[in-house]
Amino acid sequence: MQPRAIFFDFDFTLAESSVATIECANHALVELGLPAVDREAIRRCVAFPLPEVFARLTGIEDPQIGARFCEAYIRRADQVTAQLTTLFPGVEKTLRGLRQSGYRLGIVSTKYRYRIQSILSHLGAHDLVDVIVGGEDVRQHKPAPEPLWRALSRWQLAPDEALYCGDHPVDAQAAEAAEVPFVAVLSGPSLIAEFDGFPRRAVLQSVTQLPAWLGVME
User: What pathway is it annotated to (predicted)?
Assistant: First the structure.
C-alpha cells in the first residue's frame, strides 16, 4: 500500500544538528563543573530525551543534577540552535517534491516542537511540513508509540497508511510499537547493523532517495 502520509525524525534524518548539539551539551556539562565529552558520544545520544542524554554521557543518575543539565542545555539551545542547524543537502527539494505529489508530511521527534519550528523558520522552510509532534507534545517519548499515534490522529490515519523515516534504532522501535511501516536512513551515526531485528521496508542512504523508492518523480 502506498502511504498517504510520511513522517520523519528530525535530527540526522532531515537536519545536520551536530554542531548545535555538541555546543549545547558541553556548555551545560561545563556549567555544572563536569568535563566536556567526545563529540561522537553526544551525536549518538541525540535521539533520547535530555535527562537520558545526561545519564548516558556522565553515568550520573541523580535527577536533580540531571534537571540542572536540562535547564542549562535548553538555555544555550535557545541562543544558538537555530543558527547552528542546517537541513541536509537536497532535503528541502525532496520534501517539497513529495508534497507536490500529494503526500502529507510531518515531523515526529523527541526534539521540542518549538525548536524545530524556530529552525525551519530561520531556514525559510516553515511550510515544509504539515504537522510537527515534538517532545513537549507527549508524555512518553520514543521508543513508545505515543508520538507516532499522535501524528496519525491529526489526520485520522491508520498505521498502515503512513510511513516513518528515521536514522536511529529508537525510531525503528517506535515505528514497530505503533505498527507504522519504517524506512531506515543512514544519514546519522547509526550503522546498518543496528537496525537488524527491526521490521523495515527499506534502508536508504538519505531521505533524498525516498522519492525514487516510492516511484515519485521529483
Answer: Organic acid metabolism; glycolate biosynthesis; glycolate from 2-phosphoglycolate: step 1/1
